[in-house]
């Protein structure tokens, strides 16, 4: 069965950095786009970033463009989200997803809390 196991996240100060990882299993990782999304209590769900199966194209929400970087290592079945210049408004639960942004997703990671606060 498909599994997406997330790690990373935690507490960072404004301007700081964090990296999220998502290790996939149960499917041929190198054939699927992967994405990250987030949702905070009382806020709308937001697609944050996506990456093509071969890494040839990426998507970033305007809110994170220039600060977040998505990457993948198909040899390790892992997708990453490097988050730099973090802002308090980045505080949220982040989820990795098997599939492209703005599409119907069947498989999600367990979620990782990211808190940006001084």
> Topology as H/E string?
EEEEEEEEEE
Question: Biggest β-sheet, characterized?
Answer: 6 strands, mixed
Mean pLDDT: 96
Which outline best applies? globular
Work out the number of β strands.
10
Helix content: under 10%
Secondary structure tally, helices: 0
Radius of gyration: 13 Å
Side by side, the strands of the main sheet go 2-10-9-4-5-6
Which blocks of ≥5 consecutive residues have pLDDT under 50? none
- Percentage of residues in DSSP E strands: over 45%
Q: Would you tell me the structural class of the helices and strands? A: mainly beta
End-to-end C-alpha gap = 40 Å
Question: How are the secondary structure elements laid out?
Answer:
Layout (H helix, E strand, L loop, with lengths): L2 E6 L1 E3 L5 E8 L8 E6 L6 E6 L6 E3 L7 E6 L4 E6 L8 E7 L13 E5 L2
Parallel strand pairs: 2-10
Antiparallel strand pairs: 1-3, 3-8, 4-5, 4-9, 5-6, 7-8, 9-10
Characterization of the model:
With 118 residues, this protein is mainly beta. The protein has strands at 3-8, 10-12, 18-25, 34-39, 46-51, 58-60, 68-73, 78-83, 92-98, 112-116. The protein has a six-stranded mixed beta sheet with strand order 2-10-9-4-5-6, with no helix packed on it. A four-stranded antiparallel beta sheet has the order 1-3-8-7, with no helix packed on it. The radius of gyration is 13 Å and the shape is globular. The model has no long low-confidence stretch (mean pLDDT 96).
Keywords:
six-stranded mixed sheet; mainly beta; 118 residues; four-stranded antiparallel sheet
Short characterization:
With 118 residues, this protein is an all-beta fold. The chain contains no helices and 10 strands.
